[in-house]
Amino acid sequence: MNVDLFGEPLTDVRSRGGLGRHDHLTFRGNVALGRHGWLRLTPAYSLHLVRRLLARYGPHDVVLEPFSGTGTTPLACAAAGIRCHAVDINPFLVWLCKLKLTRFDDGVPAAVVKAAARVADAAREPGAPAWQPDLHQIEKWWDAPTLGALGCAWEAIRKPRRPRAPAVTELLSIAFCRTMIQTAHVSLGHQSMSFKKPGDDVGLLSEPSGDARQTVVNAFLAAAREVADSLVVEPPVVDCEVVLGDSRHLPAALPSDRPRYTVVVTSPPYPNRMSYIRELRPYMYWLGYLSNGRAAGELDWQAIGGTWGCATSLLNGWTPNGQGQIPFPHFDRIVEEIGRGHALLGRYVHKYFEDIKSHIVGLRDVLAPGAHCHYIVGNSKFYDTLLPVEGIYAALFEDAGFVDVGVETIRKRTSKKELFEFIVHAHVPHRPRERSARGVARSSRT
Ligand SMILES: C[S@@+](CC[C@H](N)C(=O)[O-])C[C@H]1O[C@@H](n2cnc3c(N)ncnc32)[C@H](O)[C@@H]1O
């Protein structure tokens, strides 16, 4: 019997519909897992899955996570004593991940609780109208009293009356993010954040009470206590690093004194038109990582698969870069078929794989001989056309000179029967590629 990576039966799961949703393999399983549970953000993938992948590796390895998101891989590495370098294009996620990877002093949890009490005192005082972010239709997110109370709490965090350690302020900001999202009129029960409908109680808190100020303060104090408590749960035991950069150009994005990475564990954006900038906008506006819609669209355009705001019009004007085809049988036909339904979507898929190709080609240059790569990806469907994402990744790895490329199906993604999540495994050959040896021979003849 074939077994999956975790020794669980794998064969025929698709045909018998036996590959269930397995929520422990998604971000839903992360809540309450120490720092992994700080914020419940859409980009996060399963800690369970990452831990099981990392179980094969040890302190002699150096892991690369090129799409680090909320930092699941680097934090799991840091707690397991495995060095890791991570990259993400989103500055808010890089900030969050850096904070998660910080090795705090023993006194920090108590300092956070103490400082939170001072913030609460300041936020309870009636004062001048507080700052609020320039988030589009902010009134849909919070009613005016809640917004006022959040603004006061935020000011008390960012402008303390008594000096405090910067790390404490950053941790209070995490508690603020939790409070801000808990008191928003949004539903968190789906992968994508949506505004609450009447009677919808999927949020983490009940509706704000009449006394919005007290509701905000109570939520903030509880969040600060949880953040403080989380610091001692599986803390980092080695230093890991995250950098802001573009993984389509990895050699330039990574530190110049980098080691040769021996393992990659990652989950790139899926080609499903989900925008991380859109999902993360309340956090990014409050924390000052975004201040207007144009900047949001431009940042999404830098992200692989981003099409939010002006990224859509930029995609409309995009043409293939012409640097080689996507080496997958019928790729052009698939793109054409998708484009027949909506030209923009055909272009979207084409650009997505050009970006991934550029990433995989650059990846090859930063890995050690024999390195192991594990890419968690999901397939997509556009109209009636199924996009075999896992197969195209496998073809791109092979084309870039990786060997022993294989695809493993890990779970069903949605109620749509054709949508699954996979791990694409690929390895760097131990010896230099034959093809590059031929290339050298050819160029030496000219
Ligand atoms: C599926 S999420 C990663 C999830 C992550 N493993 C976690 O657990 O949070 C994909 C990430 O890729 C990032 N990303 C998109 N385009 C990128 C690029 N060109 N370079 C680096 N990161 C990028 C996004 O910001 C997002 O955080």
Walk me through what this model shows.
The protein has 446 residues and is of the alpha/beta class. It folds into two domains: 23-103 and 239-445, Rossmann fold; 116-230, no CATH class. Helix content is 42%, strand content 13%. It contains 16 helices and eleven strands. The chain has helices spanning 47-54, 72-80, 91-100, 108-124, 138-141, 144-158, 166-182, 212-230, 250-253, 276-286, 293-302, 310-316, 331-341, 343-364, 389-399, 434-445, and strands spanning 62-65, 83-88, 186-187, 194-195, 241-244, 261-266, 367-378, 380-382, 385-387, 403-412, 420-427. A seven-stranded mixed β-sheet has the order 5-2-1-6-7-11-10, sandwiched between helices. A two-stranded antiparallel ribbon has the order 3-4. It has a two-stranded antiparallel ribbon with strand order 8-9. Helix 2 links the parallel strand 1 and strand 2 (83-88). Helix 4 (108-124) crosses helix 6 (144-158), helix 4 (108-124) crosses helix 7 (166-182) and helix 6 packs antiparallel against helix 7 (166-182). The radius of gyration is 23 Å and the shape is globular. Residues 1-19, 23-31, 201-210 and 436-446 have low confidence and may be disordered. It binds S-adenosylmethionine.
